[in-house]
Design brief:
This protein is of the alpha/beta class. The chain has 2 domains: 2-217, Rossmann fold, CATH 3.40.50; 223-300, 2-Layer Sandwich (Alpha-Beta Plaits). The chain has 11 helices and 14 strands. The strands form 3 sheets. Strands 6-7-8-3-9-10 form a 6-stranded mixed beta sheet, with helices on both faces.
């Protein structure tokens, strides 16, 4: 478990983190989010023990990381965005070297991590020859070498292609079943995909901490339906406006589609209203081409909570 209690960090007269508190239990994957300069990285460095808090405390499984840094850090695995790997070393030799540093048996540990992180095909290659995706896998194996209870990942899929991204995400999901995992990333879709909870920091302060679904509903439960129709768009607009639950409708030409109109329908609440709209339009003699329902996204929440802060 991670317990961050009323933590602040000053750099001279500048307060980068201001009275931030949260706790994360074992077996939870949490996204740590924030715009550039928000204090996210500073918070992460205090959790890992790279920086000491100016005020407050960080406890790792009940151990204060400032008072007992060695004991607390033994429970942490950390993968920075640009992991400092030794490019001239062969992957297997590098992992055996790291195993020795951590006091692990390389004969047992290296094969386990090779399998867990999907490194079988590159174990005999120089690290400098690896793709960025495989270097990330090596860095992840390094972070897992001491079998940490807590894993902290900084931009784990940055610069990866779509296939590599999904591979790394799958590994993180599996790891998160038995460990506490913090994922710091600017890719909000990644947080929605692999995290059950998000913590958002802006202007040095914690502005949100809840499950992904609760965050999406925190800025209201309104949603938007996009309807593409053939025929008189203005008449379709008036027809849809009469439907119960519709808060408003705008209409315009469908981009890239001649003779088609797009209705943007604002809906009260998040109920699925498309069947009613479709039935009304079909009965009105309109040709229906598309009906898409967009609810609040994590990106909407992030913009709302961090703009002008």
């Amino acid at each position: 478990m991670i317990e961050v209690s009323h933590v602040s960090r000053n750099f001279g007269d500048f307060r980068a983190v201001n009275d931030v508190s949260f706790s994360i239990p074992t077996g939870q994957i949490v996204g740590l989010l924030g715009p550039n300069g928000a204090g996210k990285t500073t918070t992460m460095r205090m959790i890992t023990g790279f920086l000491a808090p100016s005020a407050g405390s960080v406890k790792i499984d009940g151990i204060d990381i400032t008072e007992n840094p060695v004991e607390a850090k033994r429970k942490i695995g950390y993968m920075p965005e640009s992991a400092p790997l030794y490019g001239e070393m062969i992957v297997e030799d590098y992992l055996r070297y790291i195993a020795g540093i951590y006091g692990q048996n390389p004969e047992e540990k290296v094969p386990l991590l090779c399998k867990e992180c999907g490194l079988k095909e590159v174990m005999s290659k120089n690290i400098s020859e690896l793709s960025r995706g495989n270097r990330q896998r090596v860095a992840l194996a390094h972070a897992l070498m001491n079998d940490p209870e807590i894993l902290i990942l900084d931009e784990p899929t940055s610069g990866l292609d779509p296939n590599q991204v999904e591979d790394v995400r799958s590994i993180i999901r599996e790891i998160g079943k038995t460990r506490t995992v913090i994922v710091s990333t600017h890719i909000l879709s990644e947080v929605e995909t692999i995290c059950s909870r998000a913590i958002i920091i802006s202007g040095g302060k914690l502005v949100a901490d809840s499950s992904i679904e609760e965050l999406k509903n925190s800025i209201g439960t309104s949603s938007t339906v996009y309807i593409t129709v053939g025929g008189d768009g203005n008449k379709a607009c008036e027809l849809v406006k009469s439907i119960n639950g519709v808060a408003g409708v705008t209409v315009g030409p469908k981009e890239g589609e001649a003779n088609l109109s797009e209705l943007v329908v604002s809906v009260n609440g998040d109920a699925e209203i498309r069947p009613v709209i479709i039935k009304k339009l079909v009965e009105g003699g309109f040709d229906l081409y598309e009906a898409a329902h967009n609810k609040n996204t994590l990106e909407d929440v992030f913009h709302t909570l961090t703009e002008a802060k």
